[in-house]
Structures are given as structure tokens and as C-alpha cells.
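REQUEST FORM: STRUCTURE PREDICTION
Request ID: SP-0412
Submitted by: Lab K.M.
Chain count: 1
Length (residues): 555
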Amino acid sequence: MKRDPVALCEREHDLVVVGGGIFGVALAWEAASRGLSVALLERGDFCGAASANSFKMVHGGIRYLQHGDVYRLRESCGERSSLLRIAPHLVRPLPIVVPTYRSLMRGKTAMRAALSLYDLITLDRNRGIPDEINRIPRSRIISRAECQGLFPELDSKDLTGAALFHDGQMYNPTRLALCFLRSAVEAGANAVNYTEVTGFLREADRVFGVRATDRLTGNELEIRGRIVVNAAGAWAERLLKPARLNPRPTFSRDACFVVPRRLASDAALAIQGETRDPDALMSRGARHLFLVPWRNYTLVGVLHVVYDGDPDRVTVTEDDLESFLNEINSALPGLGLTLDDVHLWNAGLVLFGENRPGSHDLSYGKRSMIVDHARTDRLDGLITVIGVRYTTARGVAARAVNLAFRKMGRRPPRSKTDRSTLFGGDFSSFESLVREATSAKEHPLSEKLAVPLLRNYGARYAAVLRHSGEDPKLLAPIGESTTLRLEVLHAVREEMALTLGDVVFRRTDLGTGEHPGIESLRVCADLMGGELGWDSARVEREIDEVQSRYMKVPA
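STATUS: Completed
RESULT:
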């Protein structure tokens, strides 16, 4: 991946994709895999907004049983299966425990019936998944003693046991998006970050490309395409004048926070919060909040707030966190979380349902938007795509590319992205990959360092290790982390990392859970500075910018 914005102007593309979040990169891969020429432009860094701040869950749709929405359930389950199949290094099954109590809807009988129905509807959930450890097990009911053994923090009053089912979890959502992008680039797509689309190229009632600004040089660019797909998420509306979206989309600021310690169990825990789902046909009461093990941390979420402000100014205040902590502690008093436990929050804007201002019980988004502006605005050559969930991005991209083919007067060839492994995913089993990396004659790694490296790069890990030929010291980890120094060089040379935040938050694991320490940031910044020609003032600015993202900064 080499950044070359000027090269985008040298030809007409079949598809110009605006936005490099998960939906944009999935579109680029989907189109390129079917033989279309693709240009992708992202105003910031790839996967830098909502996609980077995902709760890291790959949803199989069990919640949609409450809505009687079998279509969404099947869609989510199918896309979960696809991700487990095509990105086995980055997506793994996650057990989830839902406590049961002495009541009708929250009891074992109701949950047993729900799990049985869910397993029946998703009977094909493991089709085509070769690695057994990536297959979704059958759901089951566990005893009260087993539930308390997993989560001793639970209040035992009226507790009868729990439902245990599995969803998926992303090891690193930004690396998963980069796998889509690198797969697209290998198939011929041309992608650039830090290049902002400022408007459309138009001739009468047809869009034939975009105007853009290279944010690094200030150069103005014109990129031509037969079809433009606006996949800019919460920023999509900014580009659409005089076109429109009807109805106007509503966005939720979805937020979670990271606690730098894990609960005793390897399973996630679902606890009931204070809000209800107004769309549920069969309700168990309040919506669930989740405490989820992730690496060496616990993720706590999700806090939903309808947001209609500037998407560039999304934030989470201490008051927001305090209120959310109170709700969590009320549902699980034994946890005793305080603001001191919160080192980092994640928040992004997600397509939401229609809600009245000030609503307490909020309606979630149900369907992703794929808008053909030839139909809605008599403006041909333009499609807008706004997705609901990270999980379904591949499937939504497939439908949008089908539409693009039809608009070009061509019959769409069959999509193959649900079974074509993504960049790094072409291996037989993860365990065999670990054995290979730890027993290699050249540059053998300890399992502690090998596992995170293989999680992020899969079968392509050797391309990262080759940078150690310049200096064996590059094989050393940065500080107390498991991030190798050579990963920083790889990010700059091969993955368009241009700022310290690109590496710390989006190319590596270094700062995605907690502050890695000032010395670790300095090591990383110095390595980047040597590659990109930063002076000492630039190094300090980059470090300050990264530190501003943390609630807790070491002295």
C-alpha cells in the first residue's frame, strides 16, 4: 500500500468510494474482487472513526428473536459466519452468559426455548469454517452454581442459572478493516488516506467523479468514476447537496470504555440496564449491558445517545461516564467500578432508529441504507451507503456493488467475498501458525510475542519480520507491550501510517487498551520520525496528540 493521490487522477475508475471506514473498505474489496477498477479516498486515516471505536462484537442476531425479525437474524448470523471463515486470525467465537431468574420471561424455560429456536434458525452457522476453534457451539442452559462460579460478582437473589450462547469477537477492528483494504489493493484498488472529498464532479444530472484535497500537500484533485459511492458514514450528508437522504438518518453516539483488568471468566456477561427496547415483541425487561473480556482488558458497554451535532466533535464527558458507571454498578453492585478504573473510552456515530427528542427507551437502527440517487433525486451515477453494524459491512457492500453493476448496464457477477479469505487469513489452523512462528529457524518468537503478531497479520506475518534484517534490535517489543518495534516500520512503509495515532491506535495493539507509557510513545515516535523526517517539535506534537485521547496519563 503506497500513498499516491495524484495517481487517482490519471484514469477513469469504475467505482470511486468516498470513506475508508469498514463499509468503504468492504465496498472497495467487493468491487475489486469482481474485476472493477476502484479508487477509495478517506479524509482522515483508514478505519479512524466509528469503525475504530467498535465494541468489537460480531453479532449473530440473537437479539432479533425478540423482534420476530428472522431476516435480520439470518443476515447477522450469515455475516458472522463469513467473518469467522475469511478472517480466522482476527475473529473468534465469544461465549456470552445471560443470567436467568425466578420469573416468566427471565427464567430458564423461556431462555431454553429461545436458545433452541435460535440454534435451529442458525443451523448452518458453521458451514465452510475449517478451523474447529472458530466454529460456533450449540447454546445451552447452565446451573446456578456454574453461573456463580463464572461470575461471583452476581447477586444470588432469585438467580436460577444462565443461558450460554456464542457470538464473535474481533481481536482488533482496525486490523480487520485493513485486511479488507489490503485485499482490495492486492486486487488492483487504489486507496489513499488524508485526502478529503469536497464535492462531486457533475454534468447536468449526472455525477462522474469527485473533487478532493490532499490534506498533506493542499493539492486539489479531480478523480473520475463511472459510479461514485458515498460511504462517509455520519459525514455522508455533508457531500450530498443538492441531493438528499429521505428520511434523514439519525445517528447514535455509541460509547464503551476499557477497564485495564479482566473479570475472572473468559465469557462475557450480559446484565440488564435501565432502558427498554420499544420495538421488542417479546421483552425480557430492560436492555442488556455487557462486560466483555478482550485481550487483558474488560470492555464495558454500550451507551447509546441520540446525536445530531457535528460528527467531528463526538466526545464522551466525565458526566456521561459517571452516569453509565452508575447504571452498571446498579445492575452489578459487586463490580464497584469508578472513574479511576476507566483509562480509555471508545465512541463513534452509528445509524440509529427513529426516536423522539429526549426519549429514554431508544429504537435501534434496523436496516442499512443503500440509496440510488437516480431514483430519489434524479441524479445519476451516485449511490449513498450508510451501514448499521460493522458485522454486516461485507453483505451490504455486496448489495451496493450489485447496484453499481446494474447502473453501468452490466449483469453483476456473483460475489465471492463471503468465502475468499482476507489478507492474512489463508492458513489451516491458528495453532499450526503459532507453532510455525515459535519454531522458525530464523527469528523464532516467544509465544507471548507470536500470538498478538499472528492475530494482527495472520499468514502474512513474515512480511513484518523481514524488517529485522536491518537491525535485530527491531525484533524487541516496545516497552512492556507485545508490539514489536519493526511493526512501526511496517506500518509506515507498507500501510500508509502517517501520524503517531495511526500506529498507536490503528496499526498496532500498542495503545488500544491503555496508555502504553511515555517512553513507549517516544520510541514509537522516534521510529516514525526517522522514516518520515520529523523534527523534534513534530515528535512532541505527535506525542501530545496521542496522550490527549487518554483519561489516565502516567506521570
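NOTES: The mean pLDDT is 92.
Reviewed by: T.R.
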